[in-house]
């Protein structure tokens, strides 16, 4: 399972109304660190699919959501539970560091 794309039309259904915990990757095509972390997120999505959904939101294509969630630097990751942001992680990190940040949601 890989991280799937969401947009302003699907965000509410995929993220806010999701029964599972959801990590939203706020990214952009031109962002090198965003592209570096993408395969790591795909691995985490595959390994922890029973506990965590991972979705990607392109900030250039969805500026309203980027503004709403105060995205000022990318990559930025927000963890949602029951429609509410419960954790924010900023910046590309190696897999062990990301898994440590997400330990409360994937272990």
From TrEMBL:
<protein>
    <recommendedName>
        <fullName>Thioredoxin</fullName>
    </recommendedName>
</protein>
<dbReference type="Pfam" id="PF00085">
    <property type="entry name" value="Thioredoxin"/>
</dbReference>
<keyword id="KW-0676">Redox-active center</keyword>
<dbReference type="InterPro" id="IPR036249">
    <property type="entry name" value="Thioredoxin-like_sf"/>
</dbReference>
<feature type="domain" description="Thioredoxin">
    <location>
        <begin position="1"/>
        <end position="107"/>
    </location>
</feature>
<dbReference type="InterPro" id="IPR017937">
    <property type="entry name" value="Thioredoxin_CS"/>
</dbReference>
<dbReference type="GO" id="GO:0045454">
    <property type="term" value="P:cell redox homeostasis"/>
</dbReference>
<feature type="site" description="Deprotonates C-terminal active site Cys">
    <location>
        <position position="25"/>
    </location>
</feature>
<dbReference type="GO" id="GO:0015035">
    <property type="term" value="F:protein-disulfide reductase activity"/>
</dbReference>
<dbReference type="GO" id="GO:0005829">
    <property type="term" value="C:cytosol"/>
</dbReference>
<keyword id="KW-1015">Disulfide bond</keyword>
<comment type="similarity">
    <text>Belongs to the thioredoxin family.</text>
</comment>
<dbReference type="InterPro" id="IPR013766">
    <property type="entry name" value="Thioredoxin_domain"/>
</dbReference>
<feature type="active site" description="Nucleophile">
    <location>
        <position position="31"/>
    </location>
</feature>
<feature type="active site" description="Nucleophile">
    <location>
        <position position="34"/>
    </location>
</feature>
<feature type="disulfide bond" description="Redox-active">
    <location>
        <begin position="31"/>
        <end position="34"/>
    </location>
</feature>
<dbReference type="InterPro" id="IPR005746">
    <property type="entry name" value="Thioredoxin"/>
</dbReference>
<keyword id="KW-0813">Transport</keyword>
<feature type="site" description="Contributes to redox potential value">
    <location>
        <position position="33"/>
    </location>
</feature>
<feature type="site" description="Contributes to redox potential value">
    <location>
        <position position="32"/>
    </location>
</feature>
<keyword id="KW-0249">Electron transport</keyword>
